[in-house]
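ARCHIVE CARD
Drawer: 12
Card no.: 0347
Subject: one protein chain, sequence and derived structure
Cross-reference: see card 0346
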Amino acid sequence: QPVSPALTMKNRTMWIFFTFVFIVHFLVNFYIFIRGWQSLSLFPCVRPYFTAVFIFLFLSYILARILEKHIGFTVANVFNRIGSLWFAAMLYFFLSILLFDMLRMLDHWLHFFPAILLANYAKTKFVTMVFAVSAVLLLISYGYINARLVRTTTMTMRVNKQAGNLKNLSIVMLSDIHLGTIIGQKKLGAIISKINDLSPDIVLLAGDVVDENVRHVINQNLGAEFEKIQSKYGVYAVPGNHEFIGGADAAVAYLEKHHVHFLRDTAILIDNSFWLAGRNDKDMSRFNGRARKSLEALLAPLDKKSPLILMDHQPFFLETSAENGVDIQFSGHTHNGQLFPLNLITRAIYHPDWGYRKIGDTHFYVSCGVGTWGPPVRIGNYPEIVNAKITFN
């Protein structure tokens, strides 16, 4: 069977991405390992154990991806969770060591370290390592608990249009569940329970419902959980970049069997009252070689006398949505960086990277997501379900 150009491009993109990630992963781990090794100069007998534990942590995630293909999901998931938590710890070990090295560099010129620290430098390094390990463990423990406590964000929005006989609409919107190896049945069940407690008229999933390959979702029969959602108009979704990473067609086909209706560059008139439109993800062309429909082409046939609600996973080009008569747009994708201080990066790229914004008469809400990607840890933000209460004129 000849390989299609789109598949070839997708494979090339994935190989480049994972090669870059592995190189960065190796270099950061090597930096942490060397500094840890040096900190144990007072206790050289501990170094072999330190090395063994460090190699295990370094290889855990890689082993998980290999084992899931040959042994099964259950065993691989143990290594996956360890490796994922190590990613979060790795970030904070890297930042703390980098900070200490920068202080050492400044002290070389400014000489501000107290003499007592320099008198027994080997002891100082060891005590610093113990402090850093303790602080990182506490921080990751907090972030792990925080990531499991889903909050509800309530918004009120007014749309100055008539919506048939509707005066009010209660929308529950969530994004970035990332179902798969880390987010499974227990977390999804808790999310759906919270959704039903809000008695929504309609439920919107703004992308990245599935983390990567949908087979992890199928193996856990997670689609059955979506059938438990209770809403007047049903559940609608758009694919995010992670659906396309793992194969959007397969993920969409599976979830649609379980009453999740996907809008892929399409729009639907709900109850003769309001339009609901959804876009394919911005990065679609990177994975299948096909460009998504322009927003202008998507919305041109619609009668904009009725309210228009749009889902677009990545919150780019918000001004374009406002110019094309969108009344409300829901997005996700950013996770608000998920781990502080990565939110400083997302804040520089997206406006907003989390929360509400209004441009002209258009309301925007960008969710930081309800799940996690990579580490099951959130620091500096929290997982949220958005309950948007809409009033029509």
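Annotation on reverse: The two ends are 57 Å apart (CA to CA). DSSP finds 14 helices and twelve strands in the chain.
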